[in-house]
Predict the 3D structure of the following.
Amino acid sequence: MLLLAFRNLVRRPLRNALTILGLAVAVAVLACLSAFGHGYQRALRAELDRMGLQLMLVPLGCPYDAAARVLKGRTLENSLPESALDEARRDPAVAVAAPLLMATLPRPGEGRADMWVGLDETAVSLKPWWRAGSGEKWFPDENSVILGCDAAEVEMRAPGDWFFSPETGRKLRVAGVLERSGTSDDSLFFVPLRTAQQMFNQPGRLTAVAIRLRDPGLLHEASERLQRIPGAQVVTLTEMMGTFLNLVGAVRTLLLSIAFVAVAVSVLGVFNTLLAAVVERTNELCVMRAIGASRSQIVGLITTEALLLTGVGSVVGIILALLIGSGIENVVKQFVPLAPVESLLSPTAAILFQSVALGAAVGVMGGLYPAWRASRLHPAEALKAE
Amino acid sequence: MTWLQLSMKEWQRRPLRTSVTAAGVAIATAALFSLLAFQRGYGNGVRNELDRLGAHVLVVPKGCPYDAASMALHGASWPCYLKEQYLVEVRAVAGVATAAPVFMTAVYDAGSTQTVYVGVETNILALKRGWRIEGNFPTHDGGLLVGSEIAQRNGWKIGQQVSLPGVQDQTGTVAGILAPTQGADDTFIYLQLADAQRIFHHTNELTHILVRLGDPDALDQVVTQLRGCDAGLAMNVVPLAHLFHTIQSLVNSTRVLFGCVALVALLLAGMGVSNTILMAVAERAREIGVMRALGASQGDIFRLIWLETVQVCVSGAMAGVAVAFLASRGVEAWVRSKLPFSPTDALIQWEWWVAAACVVCALVLGSLAGFLPAWRAARVLPMTAIRARGDRV
């Protein structure tokens, strides 16, 4: 019966190809979107876990926006006074409080902007993945710089080389180059905090303070105390993640619903194609009935055709999703706050299964009426001459 | 018989198939229409809502200013408070015409109905220029100014002594009723600031300060000064114009994504149309052959089939727009439940140009979809008419 169904489909190559293509596109969009949601959540959690932070002190303004910018290595308009750092360190619940100063250095000549980060020794304990690929792990003196691996490649510098920054008029020695970590650190320039404050003319100012607590259970009390530091706000990273996931979730739900519209449209397409196939083959189906095919066999035949059609459509759709997925990902990343560096698409078995199940459901829904109609045909009609 | 009538024949011949195809176009167009109308409605809604607040700058406690603005607009209990002495400093800043202190809180009674109490001073009237009050603004202790919806729901009249919903053992006198504003104000109960602070046990605390400037163009300077004053380190100064831009740009940045997905749906509908018309052409090969044999030119046949396609698409699109408009309430309620920040105004509004854009879109789609079948039909040879079974093209 499968063979028969297949032959019937091949009889109308253009029509069935169009139907399959339509379904494939709908399935591909749906699969990409649902894979994207899963991947985003997973990648975001992994990124935050790796940092080992619980809190962040940021300047006034939207704290979520500020924290997201700091985590992605972008500058803020506002800054914190250094006194906030001292107060944070005095808090009994704080294990590590690492100051950060971020600055962008526009390089119009090169057509890009470099990101410089000033930090002190405490930062190392917050970045366990910081491994010097070559050279020293820490700044030997105030005129040294550690480069992210991409930054080192672009600047073509190795440890020991001198590095002159014309915009700030500072000559620095490259102390080390970081191993590739797959985070935004790869493209950054790290210098000691004091050096950064001098270079960018921001004495006594910080962009943010990253905080690790002695015990994550103290989160609530600690954030309440830290909130009282003048000129600073506290963001807990779990809250922040929740906010972003909500926002992204809202957008994703809306997008998914439009994708379902696409699927609904393709159901109608399948319906029409099969209906036409039944009507065209009235004669043939009647002959089948006349020579002994039962009603249920006819229903089975048409349903098999429908499932075959949508099955092929789903498989093509999944292949399509895998092929164009990375392209779509790049587009999507531009619109998403705090887009993790890792791949967002995770084609899990569940999603593949869902897509195939969806295809089957589409086939059954689209094929039901045509199959029923085919089963109603009377064998006697075959005898009527055309 | 005119061209149009001739092309309508297909509806009679294959009513089910043609309607299903049109329905596909209708669904896709409905999605497109809802999306476009929603984008417009959302932007307008946010703008109206901020306008109704009457302030240029919102001073709120530390925390996310978007959350804070949403609370100030829709009414909620605030997690943290401002000290009342900050008000003095805000008022001292040059360029501030009115600084209205507000204490807002939401309480729930047994039936979990939310009642929002807003404590204000008389100077709130300088901000809410659109307010029309029946009765008086409360000037005595225990006086209430009630939103129209609340007054209607509880059947309150001016001068009536009422017990405050959700608060135990507290009564007030309705001094005035607010004419409907179409905003969240309709569901608020306004009372005197001191009363509100006393009833809810937050003496000398505020939730936010609404600031109106003498000259709106001086916004940036005033904001800088507000951030620079002593209290500036303990509060968030939010210029509402910036807030509007941020929200709008967030909505705009998702527009491309939504547009792409909607386009895919429309494209699929187009493919469906193409397919249906191809079937129709294949079935009618004999008929077309006869027409050709009787003297219809290739151009005539092309035109006929093409018209048929466009007609299916346009009627589908019109139906889709109509359905989208009729279903807009349901869609709106659903979208509202999904979005973290949404204005109280109708999100999906009827606009002629949006509807027209959708129909035009379908027209273009139909023209493209009709091209292949029409071309195939035009190539049918008159000879086909003579063959016994001409269903293969």
